[in-house]
C-alpha cells in the first residue's frame, strides 16, 4: 500500500474531473498525497535542496552534536535501562516566517533569496489546493482561504504561513528515540518538500504505518485539524511520524498555511449538509488561537479531546 500520487498538471486539462476526484478521495481516505507536476520550477527545487544541505553542514551540524536529544540519548545508554526516549525528537529544526527574516540563518550564501522565492511558490500552490478543496466540498471558491484570513484588508493576508526546515541526522540507536513523535498537524494545509533519497516519514492508515515514499521533486500535501473541522470530518487530519535512522541525514521542508490566530473556525454549512448524518455539525466553532493553546500541551496526544477542550464560540 502506498499513498496516492497525483499529477497536478491535469487539473487544467481534459482530465480535470478525474483529477478533482483523485484529490477528493485522497483527502477523504488518506489525508496525505503526493503532487507531481505541481508547477514549482525544478531548478528552484534543486536550489532549495542544495541550500538546505549546505546550511545544515555549515550552521547546524556542529550544534546538533551537543543538543538535548544527543545528551539524553547518551545518558540513557549509560543507564542501560532498556527504556526508550519518549518525550524528545531526533530532529534539528528552524522556522522561516515573513516577519523574522533577520533571524534566518545568515552564513549560507543565497539562502534568504532562495527561500523567499520558494515560499512564494509554495504559498501559490497552497492557494490552488484550497480552491480545489473548496470545489470538492461544494464550497464557494475562496471559502477556505477567506476563513483562514480573518480580518484581511486590501488583499493583505493575515493567515499564518511558516516553513519548518528540518534535518533528521544519522542516529546511532534509532530503536531508542523517535525522529518525530506521532501527531496530527494543528492547522490547515501542509506542503512538504521531503528528501528524495532517505525515507522515514510514515502515515497511519487503517491502523498500519505506511511509508511516504521518497519521490524526487514531489510535494507531499497533508490536511491539518482545521481542514477536518471545516469539512465537518469529511476530510481527516492524518497521524504521521518520522522514524530515526542509522544512516542518512533526511531533509524535510514543511510549509504550513494555517488560519490567523484570530480566525473563527467551524464546520462549513455546505460541508455539514454533505455528511451522511445530514446537517449535524460534528465539531465546535472556536478561535484558532484558542485551539493552539490546547494543541501546545496536547500535540502528541489523541486529537478528539482537543476539540472538546477548546473554548467554543
Structure notes:
It is built from nine helices and 14 strands. It is an alpha+beta fold. The longest helix is centred in the middle third of the chain and has 27 residues, at about 110-135. The mean pLDDT is about 95. It has helices spanning about 15-30, 40-65, 70-80, 110-135, 145-150, 225-230, 270-275, 290-300, 305-310, and strands spanning about 5, 30-35, 85-90, 90-95, 160-170, 175-185, 190-195, 200-205, 210, 220-225, 240-245, 250-260, 265, 285. It has a seven-stranded mixed β-sheet with strand order 1-2-10-7-12-5-4.
User: Average pLDDT, to the nearest integer?
Assistant: 94
- Compressed to H and E, one letter per element, the order equals EHEHHEEHHEEEEEEHEEEHEHH
Strand arrangement within the widest β-sheet reads 1-2-10-7-12-5-4
Distance separating the two termini = 41 Å
Strand percentage lies at: 15-25%
Q: What is the overall silhouette? A: globular
Number of strands: 14
**Count of alpha and pi helical runs:** 9
Biggest sheet layout: 7 strands, mixed
- Helix percentage: 25-40%
Radius of gyration: 20 Å
Structural class: alpha+beta
Low-confidence stretches: none
Multimerization status: single chain
Amino acid at each position: 500500500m502506498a499513498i496516492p500520487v497525483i499529477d497536478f498538471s491535469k487539473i487544467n486539462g481534459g482530465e480535470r474531473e478525474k483529477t478533482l476526484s483523485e484529490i477528493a478521495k485522497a483527502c477523504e481516505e488518506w489525508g496525505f498525497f503526493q503532487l507531481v507536476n505541481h508547477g514549482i520550477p525544478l531548478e528552484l527545487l534543486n536550489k532549495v535542496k542544495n541550500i538546505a544541505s549546505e546550511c545544515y553542514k555549515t550552521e547546524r551540524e556542529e550544534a546538533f552534536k551537543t543538543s538535548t536529544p544527543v545528551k539524553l540519548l547518551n545518558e540513557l545508554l549509560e543507564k542501560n535501562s532498556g527504556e526508550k526516549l519518549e518525550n524528545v525528537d531526533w530532529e534539528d529544526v528552524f522556522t522561516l516566517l515573513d516577519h523574522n527574516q533577520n533571524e534566518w540563518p545568515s552564513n549560507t550564501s543565497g539562502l534568504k533569496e532562495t527561500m523567499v522565492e520558494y515560499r512564494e511558490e509554495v504559498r501559490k500552490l497552497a492557494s490552488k489546493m484550497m480552491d480545489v478543496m473548496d470545489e470538492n466540498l461544494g464550497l464557494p471558491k475562496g471559502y477556505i482561504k477567506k476563513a483562514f484570513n480573518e480580518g484581511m484588508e486590501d488583499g493583505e493576508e493575515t493567515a499564518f504561513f511558516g516553513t519548518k526546515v528540518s534535518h533528521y541526522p544519522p542516529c546511532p540507536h534509532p530503536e531508542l528515540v523517535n525522529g518525530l513523535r506521532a501527531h496530527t498537524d494543528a492547522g490547515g494545509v501542509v506542503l512538504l518538500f521531503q528528501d528524495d533519497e532517505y525515507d522515514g516519514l510514515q502515515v497511519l492508515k487503517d491502523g498500519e504505518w505506511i511509508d511516504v515514499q521518497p519521490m524526487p521533486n514531489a510535494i507531499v500535501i497533508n490536511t491539518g485539524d482545521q481542514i477536518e473541522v471545516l469539512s465537518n470530518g469529511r476530510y481527516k487530519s492524518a497521524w504521521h511520524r518520522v522514524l530515526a535512522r542509522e544512516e542518512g541525514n533526511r531533509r524535510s521542508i514543511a510549509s504550513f498555511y494555517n488560519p490567523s490566530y484570530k480566525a473563527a473556525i467551524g464546520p462549513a454549512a455546505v460541508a455539514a449538509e454533505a455528511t451522511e448524518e445530514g446537517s449535524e455539525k460534528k465539531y465546535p466553532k472556536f478561535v484558532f488561537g484558542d485551539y493552539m493553546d490546547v494543541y501546545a500541551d496536547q500535540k502528541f496526544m489523541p486529537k478528539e479531546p482537543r476539540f472538546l477542550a477548546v473554548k467554543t464560540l
